Amino acid sequence: MDFNVIIMFCIVLLSWFSLSLTEDVEVVIEGATSIAKTDDNFVCVTLDLWPPEKCDYGQCPWGKAGIFHLDLKNKILEKAIKAFNPLRIRVGGSLQDQLVYNVRNNVKKCHHFKKKDKGFLFGFSIGCLDMKRWDELNEFFNRTGASVTFSLNALIGRKESKTEKGLWIGDWFSKNARDLMKYTISKGYKIDSYELGNELCGSGVSARIEAVQYGKDVIVLKNLVKELYPDPTTQPKVLGPGGFYDEKWFNTFLQVTGPDVLDGVTHHIYNLGSGDSPDLIKNVQDPFYLSQIAQTFKDVSNAVDKFAPWSGAWVGESGGAYNSGGKDVSRTFADGFWYLDQMGMTSTYNHKVYCRQALIGGNYALLNTTTFIPNPDYYGGLLWNQLMGSRVLSATHNGSPYLRVYSHCAKKKPGISLILINLSSNISFEVKLSNDENLHVTPHFKFEGAQKREEYHLTPKDGNIQSDVVLLNGTPLKLSDSLDIPQLNPKLVDAATPIVVAPLSIVYATIRDFNAPACA
């Protein structure tokens, strides 16, 4: 045989092996006890206030997605929310601390936010919410069954310090919030929770408030809620501070607020960097990069346990990449590597709720900003909501770090559900499960189920992870002719076979006969 032919044969053979590597992995599920617990409505999304003029990096990706311009009669939008039954929605964002509520019609020119070059935060004017739009929003929330968090203006009544730039001083002026709450109650609108302020803690983003002052203001909000909603069974929760974690600031804030004031401790996460970062696509596939944020989740959880154990940690806003997200990554299949991994990670650190920025608007939206057609992360989040219960189980393995695994009790009993995320571009993982149901008594035993396993394999169209089309078990997910959200049905697999996680894919699996006492 010609030497050159032999060389070519070897190259082809090596290429074939590199494209078809498989790795056997044993995942150990500790079914005896749970390690954390989420809220039943863990999956949450945001609706923001940005006007069409919000632009970043030479593009303006918000269109008419802000709450003042959003088409509340759009059928896709309505059905996308209803599919979660219910979906938790946080209404708020950067501009909320410049928003007044025109309850008494004493603002003669009640305008939306307008672009301003100087003298205002984020380059926009003070905005005004009239009650006609508030009525429309609440009718929409009632129609879709949404569970609503409304984030209040925390800067109203304050002024910027003359000696410290960015520091706002003075007490929170609660009268405008009181008027809005009284109007909301009079109309019978249901609010799940009120949050005070957006990204004003620590060093702040465009403004900041000292921790002691903020703590006193949240107490005022709590007393206001208790006064206006005297029935504890229907009383909205109080959340805060809604910003980036700073250990000293958070600890002081939590100590000042004191017992039974906060129901949720909210913090924000944008750990992928700026929306124009050339490293975005690399970072969402890098397990070591994705894990760097774990310490923040642990620290927040520890702070809540120590200073506010009556409450719970919430991710109140997380969009991956800040400044509206990355146009070539955040709306694509690849973003699911970050999004679903981060939901798994936060749940293991006892976070109760995870709010994705945004349901619609910007490049990181779950729905296309102009067509409202769901992006891949919408379906990833919907599957989480349908399959992953509130009790979190320990799931560990000694295989490649490019395989990420999280396990919960199944949303619908019996059994457990898992999500397996393969960040590798060339390794397929064949996963077998072991059940450590005897509290670390070794050896744990390999699980061999008798019932068919329910599997949901998510892959990108044409193998392109930057596609905005996702396939479920090989079939593209798309709206029906009547614009209905498609049914997310599993394929049934012989329980004796391993769970095969193809390169650059995401797999949900539910196992009905897995014996996990924690899920009984």
- Low-pLDDT segments, ≥5 res: 9-18
Percent of sequence in beta strands: 15-25%
* Mean pLDDT across residues: 95
| Number of separate helices | 11
Helix content: 10-25%
Name the structural class: alpha/beta
Largest sheet: 13 strands, mixed
Characterize the overall form: globular
Radius of gyration: 24 Å
For the termini, the CA-CA separation is 66 Å
Characterization of this structure:
The protein is of the alpha/beta class. The protein is 25% helix and 25% strand. The chain has eleven helices and 25 strands. The protein has helices at residues 3-19, 75-82, 131-144, 175-186, 211-228, 247-257, 280-283, 287-291, 294-307, 335-348, 376-387; strands at 21-30, 36-37, 43-47, 88-91, 99-102, 127-130, 147-152, 159-160, 168-169, 193-196, 237-243, 264-269, 313-318, 351-356, 388-397, 403-410, 416-422, 427-435, 445-446, 453-460, 470-472, 475-476, 491-493, 499-501, 506-511. Strands 1, 2, 15, 16, 17, 18, 19, 20, 21, 22, 23, 24 and 25 form a 13-stranded mixed sheet that branches. The chain has an eight-stranded parallel β-barrel with strand order 3-4-7-10-11-12-13-14, surrounded by four helices. Strands 5-6 form a two-stranded parallel ribbon. The longest helix has 18 residues, at 211-228. The radius of gyration is 24 Å and the shape is globular. The N and C termini lie far apart (66 Å). The model is unreliable at 9-18 (pLDDT under 50).
Concise account of the structure shown:
With 520 residues, this protein is of the alpha/beta class. 25% of the residues lie in helices and 25% in strands.
